[in-house]
Amino acid sequence: MMLHQDEIPVDEGIVRALLTDQRPEWAALPLAAAGAGTDNTMYRLGDDLLVRLPRTADKAGALRKEQLWLPRLAPLLPYPVPEPLHAGTPTAAFPLPWSVQRWIHGDEVGPGTVRDWAALGADLAVFVRHLHAADLLGATRADALSGYRGGSLHPCDTWISAALDDCRRRIGDETDVDTLRRLWQDALTLPEPTGPHVWLHTDLKPTNVLARDGRLCAVIDFGGLTVGFPDAEHAPIWDLPPQARHAYRQTLDLGDVTWARARAWALGVAASGVSYYWHTFPAFVAECRNRLREILADVG
């Protein structure tokens, strides 16, 4: 499934060739597709390894961030995170960096894997609190660590407003886009965020949060790792049921202004997801539409 115009195709044969060339001791292990996100294609390798390959050249930097920072951040966090084991180099068959990580056993959080949504929300808040309190280890908001979700809402207004216009055309018959636009515009009038910059995961959606025995057990996919203001970190909480959302907010003691900015980030990113992936990734569009429904239910 191709999601981007400049995407580099990959299949099992290419992955085998990369392993044979750079890690021959792993080349004969069983290999199976393990899902694909908007940034990476993934294969499970044997029982204990995961191969991640960026879809496009501009996604490759995300793997480098994980390789550089995750070994240093892992000891500071209360739940397991991916452990990079091999930094793959480009070849003629696949001209981008790639990565092998240790497989983390767990399931995506969802109705079949979580018994107590309030407990899950509180667990996730504990992870966020530790991440945001972690030493920056010399990192600053620059270059690869300057993702837009760690900054102000205002620079994103042009493309998010355009995405909301597109949502009106595509799903306006079932979605109150007027209310979504009002929430976005209201957030633009709020005071700018202040305070120290912190580490941000930036994409704590259900597919990146793993559960075992009904409780949070790990957080994965740090490709969006950023240093900046924390508001956007809270946006994916609208992907979870209200019980998780309320427990998360209460545990972190998030005030009304922070919550309003987080909600604006949530709806802006969801609207852009509907617009950009409408023809290519229907499953992700469905996730974005559900997030918009949860936002509207909250304010309703």
TrEMBL record:
Q: Name the Gene Ontology molecular function terms of this record.
A: kinase activity
| Listed InterPro entries | AGP_Transferase (IPR051678), Aminoglycoside_PTrfase (IPR002575), Kinase-like_dom_sf (IPR011009)
* SUPFAM superfamilies, sorted: Protein kinase-like (PK-like)
This protein's record includes keyword DNA damage = no
The alphabetical list of record keywords is: Kinase, Transferase
A Pfam match is: APH
Which ranges carry the Aminoglycoside phosphotransferase domain? 33-265
Name of the protein in question: Aminoglycoside phosphotransferase (APT) family kinase protein
Query: Which source organism?
Result: Micromonospora echinospora
